[in-house]
Specification:
It contains 5 helices and 4 strands, in the order αββααβαβα. It has a 4-stranded antiparallel sheet. α1 packs parallel to α3 and α2 packs antiparallel against α3.
Length: about 160
């Protein structure tokens, strides 16, 4: 199980890093390219802060908090993968870890995160949001971890010890 999750982690991390590299090389900041269907756009946006540029005026603090949070994710990984079963939680943590690692890599290597996925919508506040696959991994992984926790409580009557 662990080896399968490591492969998934590597594929997800590699995909986001490779797309970020390509976006860096091929797009100018603010430039947009529409994907077929017109609802999703690829654009190059830099984020020096957290979600929605929160704390972008404090890059050193953002980097430090990112390192601290990533260490927490790694510790949670160790605890999660040391237990038996609950494959939903393990898959969720694999996604969370890939997203955290990708964005941490950007912060350490570039000093900022490259975001590139936007939505074309009539709601301007939503249309301005730009994310990357790492952000999507974090969101999806968090949902899976919560689902795994809820399922464990339903199946075992309490939080599983193993």
């Amino acid at each position: 199980m662990l080896s399968a999750m490591l492969v998934i982690f590597a594929i997800l991390l590699g995909a986001d890093i490779m797309i970020k590299k390509r976006v860096e090389e091929e797009l100018n900041p603010g430039e947009e390219r529409e994907l077929p269907g017109g609802k999703i756009v690829i654009r190059k946006v830099y984020n020096r802060g957290f979600l929605l540029n929160l704390f972008d005026e404090y890059p050193a603090a953002v980097k430090g908090m990112s390192l601290f949070a990533s260490a927490g994710v790694m510790a949670w990984d160790v605890l999660t993968f040391a237990k038996k079963r609950n494959y939903i939680r393990k898959l969720g943590m694999t996604l969370v870890s890939a997203g955290a690692a990708s964005n941490l890599f950007d912060r350490l290597a570039r000093g900022k995160v490259v975001d590139y996925i936007g939505l074309r919508t009539k709601k301007k506040h939503i249309g301005r949001i730009t994310a990357n696959l790492g952000d999507i991994y974090l969101a999806m992984g968090s949902v899976l971890v919560m689902a795994g926790e809820i399922l464990a409580v339903i199946l075992h009557g309490n939080h599983p010890k193993k």
